[in-house]
Amino acid sequence: MAEETSRDIYNRVSISKTEEQKKVLRYFILKDDQGCFGNTKDFVSDDEFDSFVVNFLNSNNKMQEALDKIGVDESQVQEVQPINFWGFITSGNIANYRKWNNNWMFKSSSIQMSWLFFSKDQVYLFQKTMKLDENSTIFRTEEYFYKDIVNFSTKTEEEEFNGRKYIDNTFSVIVPGDRFDCKLPQNMDSAESSIQGMKAKLREKKSAS
User: Fold this and answer.
1) Are 153 and 171 spatial neighbours (Cβ–Cβ below 8 Å)?
2) Using alpha carbons only, what angle is made at residue 203 by residues 197 and 205, rounded to the nearest 5 degrees?
3) CA dihedral 170, 175, 180, 181 (to 10 degrees)
4) Which end of the chain is more exposed for a tag (fewer CB within 10 A), N or C?
5) What average pLDDT does range 26-47 have in this prediction?
6) 82: helix, coil or strand?
7) What's the DSSP call for residue 119?
């Protein structure tokens, strides 16, 4: 039996997929092993995928949805400006497809989006994990009193894919017997000031209690 080409794999897994999901699958699966890119409409560049992700986030990462799922009004969570994190899921069975782009940035077909809200006494958390290549969404909501939070922490781990290492960043809210993990971008610069602000607020609340 002839070895299955990337085109064969794509044709098999793209059945019944939406056009957006097919675009994601083409980006992660298709290789030019059988002249796949002779038809340029099949080729999905890094820039096209990045634009797709930005549009996807703008459409699916709404603060109001998070507030509605948690069941609070924006006026109730004014202690700190709402925090929004997102990152690729790069390990485990949630990430169906992974790859290095041409600039050696690591990409995945699954995204995690998190919102953190702060009232006078509590922290409210909302999270949505979505597979870009299929109709799959996992929701999680939690609420913790400041007095019960042990720590806000960040963890940076080196992972490996196809012989090359990448950075996996996670922010965690830790309480006795539980933790709420939020994926962060590979470049932490955009999240660092928000994380430091949350830590300062937690110290303030702990010292006042």
Assistant:
1) yes
2) 105
3) 10
4) N
5) 74
6) strand
7) -
* Cα–Cα distance for residue pair 202/99, rounded to 1 Å: 37
Token duo for residue 190: 């955009």
List phi, psi (to 5°) of 110: -130, 140
State how far the Cα of 182 lies from the Cα of 125, in Å rounded to an integer.
Answer: 10
Nearest-angstrom CA–CA distance, 170 and 182: 6
Do residues 139 and 69 touch, judged by C-beta distance below 8 A? Answer: yes
User: Which pLDDT belongs to residue 95?
Assistant: 76
Q: Which residue has the tokens 């820039």?
A: 47
Instruction: Evaluate whether 113 touches 128 at the Cβ level (below 8 Å).
Output: yes
**Cα torsion 29, 31, 33, 35: sign:** positive
What pTM was computed for the model?
0.90
- Yes or no: say if 93 and 108 are a contact pair by the CB < 8 Å rule: no
From CA 90, how far away is CA 111, in angstroms rounded?
A: 9
Sheet holding 136-145, edge to edge: 80-88, 110-118, 122-131, 136-145
